[in-house]
C-alpha cells in the first residue's frame, strides 16, 4: 500500500491470472473485459459456478465473487450494461445506491475554473456512458446531480451546451482525421486559490511565459483535522523567513535561513555581542572593525547606527518552504510588503516588476480590510407604531 508501483504490479498479476484461468476454462469465453480487478464476462447460465471455481483455484490468496445480471442488467464500473433481445448491449451512466451523489460543491473555496471542470467532466461522462436514453433524459440526470451539489441552473445549462459543442467537435475531428497542433513545451505550476488575486497572477504569467497554472485550496482535510504529530518548535524549524522587531523603534528586520532558526539567531547574538565589545573598547562607527561587523547584516547595521536593541528572544516566523531555492524570492516579497523594515534597498532590487505589482495589490487589499475592521458598527433601531416589536439592524461597512 502506498507504493507507486502497486497499480502496475496489480495489473500484471491480474493479467497473469487471467491468462491462466482462461486457458483452464474448457470452452471459449465469448465476451470478456477487464479493468484492474473488475471483470465483465458473458457466460452460459449453467457454467458460471464452474468458471468461478477455475478462477479461484489459480491462487488461494485471490478469490473472486460473482454478480449476476438482474432483468438483463448488470452494473460494471460507472455503467449499467443492458442486454437487449437481439443480444446487443446498451449502456447508461450508473451510480451505486449507497452513493450520496456529492462531489465538489459549488460553494466550496476552490476556484471557479475547477468547479466548471468538475461539472463539465461529470456531464461528459454521463453523455459518454449513456447510449439507451434520449437526450432530454440524459440532461435531466445531469441537472439533478449538479443541483444536489448547489450548482446554479444557469451554470448547468452552460455546462450542458459546452458538452454538446465538445461532442460535435470531437465527431468532426474524427471524421476529418484532424490532429491537434503541437503546442510546444509548456511549464505546469500550482498556485493557492485566492479570490480576486489568483486569476490576476495567472493572466500576468500567461502573457510573459508559456505556463499552465492549476489552482489549489488550502482548506483540505489535512488542514481541518487536528495534527497527529507534535508541532516542531519554532527554534527547531528551517527553510523559513523570519522577522525580528526593534525594541527602540518601529523598525524590523526580515531574514531567511536554511538552517535551524536557533542557529541563525545565535549568529545574530554573536554579531551583537561583538559590536558591544568593540564599543566598550572605545571603537567608533568609523573604525574598520565596526564597519566590518555592520556589513554582515542590516540588523547589526541598524543597531550600530542608532544604538538600538532588537528583540532576539521574540522572533516571528513569516513563511516557510520545502525548497531552499525559494527563500530569496520569498524574503524579497516579505521585505517589499512589510513597512518600516531596516533591510537594505538592495534586498529587493532583484524582485521582478511583475511581483512588485502583485504585492502592491495585496497591500491595498490588506489596507482596505484593516480599515473596514477598524470602523465602528452602526446600530439602527426601527420601531413600528402599530406593533410593540423592536427590530434591530446592524450595518457592517
From TrEMBL:
Residues 370-382 have a biased composition (Polar residues). Residues 1-108 form the Reverse transcriptase domain. Residues 366-397 are annotated as: Disordered. It comes from the Eukaryota. This is Reverse transcriptase domain-containing protein. The lineage of its organism: Eukaryota, Metazoa, Ecdysozoa, Arthropoda, Hexapoda.
Amino acid at each position: 500500500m502506498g507504493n507507486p508501483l502497486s497499480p502496475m504490479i496489480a495489473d500484471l498479476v491480474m493479467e497473469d491470472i487471467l491468462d491462466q484461468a482462461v486457458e483452464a476454462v474448457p470452452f471459449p469465453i465469448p465476451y470478456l473485459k477487464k479493468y484492474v480487478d473488475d471483470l465483465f464476462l458473458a457466460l452460459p447460465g449453467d457454467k458460471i459456478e464452474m468458471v468461478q471455481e477455475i478462477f479461484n483455484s489459480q491462487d488461494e490468496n485471490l478469490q473472486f465473487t460473482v454478480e449476476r445480471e438482474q432483468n438483463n442488467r448488470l452494473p460494471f464500473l460507472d455503467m449499467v450494461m443492458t442486454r437487449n433481445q437481439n443480444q446487443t448491449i446498451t449502456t447508461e451512466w450508473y451510480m451505486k445506491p449507497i452513493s450520496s451523489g456529492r462531489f465538489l460543491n459549488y460553494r466550496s473555496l476552490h476556484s471557479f475554473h475547477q468547479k466548471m471542470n468538475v461539472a463539465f467532466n461529470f456531464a461528459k461522462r454521463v453523455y459518454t456512458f449513456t447510449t439507451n436514453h434520449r437526450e432530454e433524459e440524459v440532461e435531466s440526470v445531469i441537472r439533478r446531480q449538479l443541483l444536489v451539489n448547489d450548482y446554479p441552473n444557469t451554470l448547468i445549462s452552460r455546462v450542458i451546451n459546452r458538452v454538446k459543442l465538445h461532442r460535435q467537435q470531437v465527431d468532426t475531428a474524427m471524421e476529418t482525421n484532424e490532429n491537434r497542433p503541437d503546442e510546444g513545451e509548456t511549464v505546469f505550476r500550482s498556485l493557492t486559490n485566492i479570490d480576486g488575486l489568483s486569476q490576476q497572477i495567472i493572466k500576468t504569467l500567461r502573457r510573459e511565459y508559456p505556463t499552465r497554472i492549476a489552482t489549489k485550496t488550502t482548506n483540505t482535510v489535512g488542514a481541518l483535522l487536528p495534527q497527529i504529530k507534535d508541532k516542531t518548535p519554532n527554534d527547531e524549524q528551517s527553510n523559513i523567513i523570519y522577522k525580528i522587531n526593534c525594541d527602540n523603534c518601529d523598525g524590523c528586520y526580515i531574514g531567511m535561513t536554511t538552517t535551524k532558526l536557533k542557529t541563525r539567531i545565535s549568529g545574530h547574538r554573536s554579531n551583537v555581542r561583538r559590536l558591544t565589545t568593540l564599543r566598550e573598547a572605545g571603537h567608533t562607527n568609523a573604525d574598520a572593525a565596526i564597519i566590518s561587523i555592520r556589513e554582515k547584516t542590516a540588523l547589526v547595521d541598524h543597531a550600530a547606527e542608532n544604538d538600538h536593541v532588537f528583540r532576539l528572544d521574540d522572533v516571528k516566523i513569516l513563511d516557510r518552504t520545502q525548497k531552499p531555492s525559494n527563500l530569496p524570492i520569498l524574503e524579497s516579497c516579505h521585505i517589499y510588503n512589510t513597512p518600516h523594515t531596516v533591510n537594505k534597498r538592495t534586498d529587493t532590487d532583484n524582485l521582478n516588476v511583475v511581483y512588485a505589482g502583485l504585492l502592491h495589490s495585496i497591500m491595498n487589499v490588506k489596507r482596505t480590510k484593516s480599515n473596514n475592521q477598524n470602523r465602528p458598527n452602526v446600530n439602527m433601531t426601527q420601531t413600528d407604531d402599530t406593533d410593540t416589536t423592536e427590530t434591530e439592524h446592524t450595518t457592517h461597512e
